[in-house]
Design goal:
Layout: E1 17-23, E2 29-34, E3 39-45, E4 55-59, E5 70-75, E6 85-99, E7 105-107, E8 110-115, H1 132-147, E9 152-160, H2 161-178
Parallel strand pairs: 5-8
Antiparallel strand pairs: 1-4, 1-6, 2-3, 4-5, 6-7, 6-8, 6-9
Length: 179
């Protein structure tokens, strides 16, 4: 079985980003991909009433500052499944600083993307074109999600697709250095 974290970053046909979904929209269960096991593990269960507002996953062959592949929240009409591989175009990024329980701080940015097969958001090319309530919902989700785990997620700014793609390229270089 191929290691999903080492798939190509971009789909050769569509030229869109490859995304591996770890946690589907509407789930209270947070899953993480375990590279060593080649399987998805239940990381934890979210508080009652808290669910992922969109599909959440990672971009293969990238390495973010937190030591994991680059995180991405994917807008799609209906939830997919744990382990689903899909293509998406980056429309922006919520840059953020995360503070761990021990006080360690690092960047933990969240890419925002639209699935290639999405219909509702098919024409959206930039985060600025989204209803700002959608972006606020995503930010508030991560703030509260981290708060419940004793961490702090502080949004630093919202930026468009060019900044998101620069982050992807930077994280691809970091991945290659590590490999």
């Amino acid at each position: 079985m191929k290691n999903l974290a080492h798939l190509q970053t971009f789909d050769p046909e569509t030229k869109d980003l490859n995304v591996v979904i770890e946690t589907p929209r509407g789930s209270r269960n947070k899953y993480d991909y375990d590279e060593e096991a080649g399987a998805f593990k239940l990381a934890h269960v979210l508080a009652e009433g808290l669910v992922f507002p969109n599909d959440f996953g990672f971009i293969p062959s990238t390495l973010a500052e937190d030591g994991d592949p680059l995180d991405v929240m994917v807008l799609l009409d209906t939830p997919t499944a744990v382990g689903c591989l899909l293509t998406a175009r980056a429309i922006g990024v919520i840059e953020a600083q995360q503070t761990e329980v021990d006080g360690t701080k690092f960047r933990n940015d969240r890419l925002i993307a639209v699935a290639t097969h999405a219909q509702v958001h098919s024409e959206v090319k930039s985060i600025s074109e989204l209803d700002q309530k959608v972006v606020e919902e995503i930010e508030h989700f991560f703030i509260y999600y981290n708060e419940r785990r004793g961490k702090k997620f502080k949004p630093l700014g919202r930026f468009g697709s060019k900044r998101a793609m620069a982050l992807v390229k930077q994280s691809m270089k970091a991945f290659k250095k590590k490999s």
